[in-house]
Known about the structure:
This is Fimbrial assembly protein. The protein has 2 domains: 13-106; 108-172, Gyrase A, domain 2 (2-Layer Sandwich). It is rod-shaped, with a radius of gyration of 51 Å. Helix content is 60%, strand content 22%. It has helices at 15-25, 27-106, 132-145, and strands at 111-118, 122-129, 148-159, 162-172. It has a 4-stranded antiparallel β-sheet with strand order 1-2-4-3, covered by helices on one side. With 175 residues, the protein is α+β, with helices and mostly antiparallel strands. It contains 3 helices and 4 strands, in the order ααββαββ.
Amino acid sequence: MKYKINLLGRRKEQPLERLIYFMLNYLRYILVITQIVVIGVFFYRFKVDQELVDLQETVEQKKEIIQVSQPLIKEAKKEATRLNQLESIIANQQTFLEETDYLLSLFPENFFLNKMQVSKDTIFMVGYTQDPQSVKKFLDRLKKESKFKKVELKNIKKIDLGLEFSLELSKYKSI
């Protein structure tokens, strides 16, 4: 039997020696892991920077598209305004045509017009006829059908050619 006797006491380790031991054994693993994380963040940063550059290019392209299309949009708005004006003019003309067609469809054969004045809402006619009954029938029919809000015989007088009449029709109601 052999005994080993250590006559020297166990030496107490200093905190500096513990720190050096820790740094030599475990800190290298921490450094490697930290480097891997830093490299990962570095590559992620490249990716994010590229996305930012792509987004900025996209924004610039969109700005250019807007700048190029701005005159077209202004022109389209002008044309839309013109079309609206044309639609109102066409509607007025259509009402005028309906009014005139209606009036001519009722107009007796023995009426002769000397003057016809058409404004926005009124039609003023001056004419003559040989038959006084046709004036009455024409007025009665206009009032009966009530396409005009106001039908008024302004003046009637005897002339050489027969009876001269003045008629005012206003505010045509299209159906």
